[in-house]
Structures are given as C-alpha cells and as structure tokens.
Specification:
Blueprint (H helix, E strand, L loop, with lengths): L1 E6 L5 E4 L5 E7 L6 E6 L8 E7 L2 E9 L4 H14 L7 E7 L2 E11 L3 E3 L9 E9 L4 E2 L4 E4 L1 E9 L5 E14 L5 E2 L1 E5 L2 E2 L2 E4 L4 E4 L3 E2 L4 E5 L6 E5 L5 E3 L12 E2 L2 E8 L8 E6 L2 E2 L3
Length: 287
C-alpha cells in the first residue's frame, strides 16, 4: 500500500491513499533527478574533462480522484483540497508512505488543484485533479532524526620530569554512520559549561566552533543546512540569541560524509558536565 500525507505551513494535513474520499491514482517525480554534468575542454583535447555533477530542483505531481456520491459533500471536499493546497502558504511537507517505509520532502505548490469531471454520470461520478509541486531541495529525507551523543574521554601526555607530570585533556568522541545516499547536514547541540567549544568531523578534517564561554545552563545550537545555517546560544530560560559573531573564522558548516564518520569535540575547560548531541536526517536521491 502507498499513500501520501501533505502538511502545509499552517500544520493542516490531508491524506491521499487507496480509500475514499481522496484516492491516489499515481505520483510522478519521486525517482531519478535531473543531473547537470559539468565539463571543460582544452584546445585540441580529444573529448572533455569531467569537473562535477549537480542536480536541479525536483518536479513532482500527484494525480488523485475525489470519490463521494453526495453533491454537497463533494463541494466541501473540493474546498478542503483547495484550502490545504494553498500555493500562497509557502513550503509544505510531503510524506510518502510505501511498503512499511516513509520518506519526506519539502515542496512548494506549482499548480493548485484544478478539477475535471469524468464521463461517468450518476452517483459514481468522480472528480479528478492533478497537483504539481517543486522541491527546491531535491533530496528525500527520513521522517525521523538519527542522533548520537558523544562519549566522555580522558587521557594525557606524560613527560620525564622530577615530579611525574601529566598534561590532561578531556573531550567527546564517537563514530556515526550516514546511511543515506548523499552528504547530510547536521544539527549540533552543545551543552555547557564550555570555553571556545568546537565540534570536528575528523573524517573530513572540517570543524565548527565559537570563541566564547558557555555557562553551565547554556546551550550552543548549530545548524549546518545550506539554506538554514545558524549558530545560536540558548540560556536557562529558553531565550535564544544569534551567536554568528562569535564564530571561529576558520569554521566550516560541515556535513556528514557518506558512510562512517568520526566526530570529536574540544573545549578549553575541564568540565565533565559538558555533552554534545549531533542529529541528522539521512538523505536519498529517490525511491
């Protein structure tokens, strides 16, 4: 069984499946994406040299039938579709449920429902419509976050002095697995206390951090998504303030690489109360 659940920016949802009143006829656009292959050619070169591949936005369409033998109810259901699929409400979330799995994608409505009456007369008459969407971010996502809390580490370096001396370090480190098909941006929650907190993707060599001290009841919140980059500090009362001005200028808004990633944290204090939570959604090229 397959079905779709669309939720608009106002939180209003509608389900389209294999039962009345909204029956899914077909959905197009959930498979392969349009790819742009970037190449270059030098004088007298035989063929071209490959540079990179990029993808366009995803175009989707839903074909559905409205089934109801009550004329007054049909008009109410029509109005419900038009209200939920209002193109002026911005992006909504389209969830696709199939064979026990779920994926979701952010979409904007490119064409609102337009109804066509079929040739059948009488109580079995049905209204059919097609709704077109554009997904600016073309990747399908898990409907849930995968999360990992980094574990506490302690160690040190010993030197031959008259008095045995250890320069200790404390930090967090863990392995995480990106099971998707493309790199995945992350949400990082860094719980204080910490001084100049930094989170590093050891696998890629990239890090992100701020040059500021976090108090014990404060949280550093980082989002590395391309279109939603943010660094904020939340106090004990839940108030947030922009912390981009404190960013280490060598920082990168990094993403998880495909497969295994090793993440670590560093801080210029010795508190074992500090902890770091990293969460993300695996991303897919289609279903």
């Amino acid at each position: 069984m397959e079905k779709l659940i669309f939720t608009n920016s106002k939180g209003i949802s509608i389900e389209i499946g294999n039962q009345a009143p909204f029956v899914l006829k077909k959905i197009l656009g959930l498979d392969g994406m349009n790819v742009n292959v970037q190449t270059k050619k030098a004088p007298f070169q035989l063929g071209k040299s490959y540079i990179d591949s990029t993808v366009d936005e995803r175009l989707l369409s839903i074909h559905l039938a409205l089934l109801n033998d009550n004329e007054e109810e049909k008009f109410r259901l029509r109005e419900q579709l038009l209200r939920v699929f209002n193109p002026l409400l911005g992006q909504g979330t389209l969830k696709y449920v199939y064979t026990g799995k779920e994926k979701e994608i952010k979409v904007a409505i490119d064409q609102a429902p337009k109804f066509n009456v079929d040739d059948v007369e009488g109580p079995d008459q049905q209204l059919e419509t097609v709704i077109h969407f554009i997904a600016a971010d073309p990747f399908l996502l898990d409907t849930f976050h995968t999360s990992k809390e980094m574990s506490y580490l302690m160690g040190g370096l010993n030197f031959r002095l008259k008095i045995p001396t250890t320069f200790s370090y404390r930090g967090f480190k863990n392995k995480v697995m990106n099971d998707g098909e493309v790199k995945a941006p992350v949400n990082i929650i860094f719980y204080g206390p910490a001084k100049n907190p930094t989170v590093t993707n050891v696998t890629t060599g990239e890090f992100i951090g701020i040059t500021k001290e976090l108090k014990e009841n404060e949280k550093l919140i980082i989002d590395t998504s391309f279109d939603n980059k943010l660094i904020e500090i939340e106090d004990a009362e839940g108030n947030r303030k922009n912390a981009l001005g404190y960013i280490d200028l060598a920082s990168v808004f990094w993403s998880l690489d495909l497969g295994l990633n090793i993440l670590s944290y560093t801080s210029n204090n010795d508190s074992i109360k500090t902890k770091v939570l990293v969460k993300w959604k695996n991303r897919y090229t289609g279903v």
